[in-house]
Design a protein that fits this description.
Structural class: alpha/beta
Bound molecules: 5,6-dihydroxy-NADP, zinc ion
Distance between the termini: 38 Å
Shape: globular
Number of strands: 8
Number of helices: 15
Largest sheet: 6 strands, parallel
Length: about 400
């Protein structure tokens, strides 16, 4: 195993009545004015926005609101949010929604705490020096942004989807009430669970010697998410299943499942960000569509690691050798994704990927042919293109 640092500073308030705590949690931040940032309508329809607004008013916190965040959140709304916050003297951003809302909130928070164009940070032209404080009321178990150090924004000019990871943007608090996720459509529940799994799997598939405890946490989390998502799809109001998914969302992307490894591979995320940047697909679904093609490409570099995954996570019977066991595990994961209604090929998301499309995605994913992605097996532009080709149908 490698040495590591673990920093998970977000104050988590978990449970059925946790939303009622939002007023006190924001008031404790001693801010002048809060931006309540939300999505396309689910938080309004469910009455959550009213509950949050009332709680802030009872705590004497002044606020403005900005809705309209879409999945794969857009830079244009971030810019609108920054202008609004500057006009109104906002110094705290409260995200009420999923990963897209939290990421848009983090981007606004970077924007108001630094001069110049916020996109420079996502384009890696400059490094942010500060970030205004952000808190979250989470409504979907998925991206893990509520405890992660990341935010991912799409620039409509060129449809570039780019991530930014720094310690500055970690949420001050995260309110996790599993009942808020009862209203999720089945597809979003499944896509979210797949993303939760992938945040651990990206860390799990590493070539370095791992810490047994980290492997056990990762394998246990994956088995637990598979069980809970299956239960939540059967009964959307299964509290224990929703609670398991929500807590896994946070633990899967706050670094816990990567302690002692090299930070993970992350190829599938890079491959997927190009897909959702160009085709606006749900992030978790896009991950499922590329995962097995990536896995079959890189598995020969370390069949033993994939064999461990196959046995400990997917519960398959070992084959004659590690390669056979590994392949059984990849097949089993494909079956599982399909069992929860997720695609395992790009065409299953209604995208007919042409050769030119695959070339374009590979060009963008390799940052115009200037970088390789992943660590398990670093993939250059040509290798990326080949994974897209394998995954297309
Ligand atoms: O906009 P509304 O109406 O709220 O609808 C949303 C949206 O359509 C809906 N939804 C959310 N909670 C709901 C609900 N519908 C009914 N009831 C509820 N309780 O679900 C849809 C998806 O929401 P979104 O926020 O987009 O989902 P998710 O949390 O999966 O976030 C996806 C974004 O996060 C990025 C992804 O790339 C994508 O842009 N990621 C962010 C990461 C991070 N910051 O650490 C890491 C991830 O790997 C990921 O890349
Ligand atoms: Zn993800």
């Amino acid at each position: 195993m490698l040495d590591f640092e673990y920093h998970a500073p977000t104050h988590v308030v978990f449970g059925k009545q946790s939303v009622e705590r939002v007023g006190a949690l924001v008031a404790a931040q001693n801010c002048k004015k809060v931006l309540i940032h939300y999505g396309g309508g689910s938080a309004r329809r469910s009455g959550l926005l009213d509950r949050v607004t009332q709680a802030l008013e009872q705590a004497g916190v002044s606020h403005v609101a900005l809705g309209g965040v879409v999945p794969n959140p857009r830079l244009s709304l971030v810019r609108e949010g920054i202008a609004l916050c500057r006009r109104e003297g906002v110094d705290f951003i409260l995200a009420v929604g999923g990963g897209s809302v939290i990421d848009s909130s983090k981007a606004i928070a970077y924007g108001i705490a630094n001069d110049g164009d916020v996109w420079d940070f996502y384009a890696k032209k400059r490094v942010p020096q500060a970030c205004a404080p952000v808190g979250a009321v989470l409504t979907i178990a998925a991206a893990g942004s509520e405890m992660s150090n990341s935010s991912v924004i799409t620039n409509e000019e060129g449809w570039l989807k780019r991530g930014l990871s720094t310690e500055l943007c970690r949420c001050k608090f995260a309110i996790l009430d599993p009942t808020l996720t009862y209203t999720l459509p089945a597809y979003q529940t499944a896509s979210g669970a797949a993303d939760v799994m992938m945040h651990t799997m990206e860390r799990y598939f590493t070539q370095v010697d791992t810490l047994g405890l980290t492997d056990a946490i990762a394998e246990g989390l994956l088995r637990s998410v598979m069980r809970d998502v299956t239960a939540a799809l059967k009964n959307p109001e299964d509290y224990d299943a929703r609670a398991g998914l929500m807590w896994a969302s946070s633990l899967s992307h706050n670094g816990l499942t990567g302690c002692g490894t090299d930070g993970g591979d992350w190829s599938c995320h890079q491959l997927e960000h190009e897909l959702s940047g160009k085709y606006d697909v749900a992030h978790g679904a896009g991950l499922c569509a590329v995962w097995s093609s990536w896995a079959r490409t890189v598995m020969p570099a370390n069949p033993a690691r994939f064999a461990q995954f196959a046995v400990n996570v997917m519960g398959v019977q070992p084959g004659a050798d590690d390669t056979e066991t590994a392949n059984r595990g990849i097949d089993a994961m494909e079956d599982f994704f399909q069992s929860i209604g997720m695609p395992v090929r790009i065409n299953q998301m209604g995208i007919d990927l042409t050769e030119a499309d695959a070339q374009e995605l590979a060009y963008k994913c390799s940052f115009m042919d200037t970088r390789k992605i992943g660590r398990f097996v670093p993939l250059d532009r040509t290798a990326i293109y080949e994974v897209y080709q394998k995954a297309k149908a």
